[in-house]
Amino acid sequence: MGRRARAKADLDIELADLPPELRWREWMGRVEAVIFASPGPVTREALARVVGRDCSIDLLIDDIREDLRGRPYELVTVAGGWQHRTRKVFAEAIRTATGLGDQVRPLSQHESLVLMCIAYYQPITRGELSQFFGKEVSRDLIGYLRRLGFIAWGPRAPQPGAPYTYVTTKGFLSHFGFETLRDLPDMEALEDAGLLSKDKMLAGEFPVLASDEADQLEADRDEE
After folding, report:
1. Strand 151-156 vs strand 164-168: parallel, antiparallel, or unpaired?
2. Half-sphere exposure in the Cβ direction for 192 (13 Å, CA)
3. pLDDT tens for residues 71-104?
4. Would the pTM count as exceeding 0.85?
5. 3-state secondary structure of 63
6. CA distance 197 to 113
7. Rg of the Cα atoms in the chain
8. Judging by beta carbons within 10 Å of its beta carbon (0-12, 13-18, 19+), is residue 176 exposed, middle or buried?
């Protein structure tokens, strides 16, 4: 494990002169402010730069969440970090007042299934996707998912022509509220809920992404 990054000299992170209760409230305020100001999920490493060396980030997060109980927004764990998000119950009110969420059309059923297939069986080539669905998955569809930030190029496949594979991104995790790939719903549960049909998605029996494979994909992506 690498050494903790040194905070800027003008920021007192230990706050040794403050009573314990005030010190804790100050750390809570800093952590919440950093998360609020960030456009994306904030990692544990980033938060550790603004609090004392012996401060528990997890306990701080728990207390912030308790303070936000009953508020229209919450602190969620996504894509390996934390982020403020409005509660889903207020989504329609936000769309009505601001029009936010109307700029990008919803994914079609076919686009959603292709994205789901990439999520479960990554890294995967466009040719393999076409094989799964029994018809060509177009470059335009792949390009659209890339422009949305849901997928990215993965390693080249060990096949003739060495085609690129595709993998999901941290943007995918953040958008759909997953912390890691291990949080993807179980395939059987999706079938039971009527949200997925293997007959539509797969041409045969394929194993669901194992947890150790998910760990390796996360590690590989963090090294990029």
Report:
1. antiparallel
2. 5
3. 888 888 888 899 888 888 887 887 778 766 555 5
4. no
5. helix
6. 10
7. 21
8. middle
